[in-house]
UniProtKB/TrEMBL annotation:
Protein name per the record: Dihydropteridine reductase
Record lineage: Bacteria, Bacillati, Bacillota, Bacilli, Bacillales
Residue intervals of the FAD-binding FR-type domain: 1-107
Annotated SUPFAM superfamilies: Ferredoxin reductase-like, C-terminal NADP-linked domain, Riboflavin synthase domain-like
MF-aspect GO terms: oxidoreductase activity
Residue ranges that the Swiss-Prot or TrEMBL entry lists as coiled coil: none
PROSITE patterns in UniProt: FAD_FR (PS51384)
Organism: Virgibacillus salarius
Gene3D superfamilies registered for this protein in UniProt: Nucleotide-binding domain of ferredoxin-NADP reductase (FNR) module, Translation factors
Top-level lineage group: Bacteria
Amino acid sequence: MKIYWTKINKIIEETPEVKTYLLDCPDDFTWEEGSHTHFALEGFNAGDKPNRSLIRHMSISTLPHENSIGITTRIREQCSEFKTILRNLKVGNDIAIFKTHSNVPLKREDKNVYLLSSGVGLATFRPLVLDYFERADNVKQIHSLNIDSSKEFLFTDIFKSVPDKKFTSQFVDNRKDYYEEVKDLAADKDGLFYVVGSDEFLIQNIEMLREQGIKPEQIMLDKHEHELPKFLSFDLSI
C-alpha cells in the first residue's frame, strides 16, 4: 500500500458547517469520478498500529483536471477528535491519502441517471456531474435530488438545472418532500439510481426504490462490492 503525503493548498468554507480542503496532487496519484480515499492526519501511523481515530473514508469532490484533490466534509460545533483536529488545520499542513478507489463511476448505458443524496453526500456526485458536462456520451440525462435540512445547499454553482445539457437539479429540506420525489423518479423503471448518504439513508431509499419495482442492479451505492449484499439483498415481503 502506497501512502501519499501531500499538503493543503486551499480551504473553502462552503457553508458555516461545511469545508472543502483542496490538496496538492502528488505526481503519480490518479483517480476517477466517484472516487473515495482514506484521508489521514499526521501521527496516524506513528505507532505499531495505525491510529484509526485519525483516519476517515472520504469522497473526492474534484476531478483530476482541476489540479487539486478536494475533500468536502461537514464539521459541526460538537464533533469527533478527527474533525476537531481537521477544523484547526491550515494551508500548508500535511495530510496523508491512500487506498483510493471508485465504487460509483458514471455508467454510460444509454439510460437516465438519478443522483440521490443527503447533505454533504452531494460531494460524491460533483465529479460525476462535471464528467457528464464534459462528455455526455451514452447518458440520456441526469437528475440530482438532494435533501439537506440545514437549507445550506452545496455546490449550487454546479447543481443547477441546465436544460440544454439535459441536467436537472432539485434541493429539498424535508423528508416528506424528498421521498415523494424519489417515488416519482422511480416511475422510470429503466433508470440508474445512485444513492449516497448514511447507512440509514441508503436503506430507506433502497426500500422505496425496490417497492416501486427498481431492481438491485439498477441501484449504485458508494460501498465496496462485499458490502453490497447487506444493503441490496432483502426480502420485500418482510
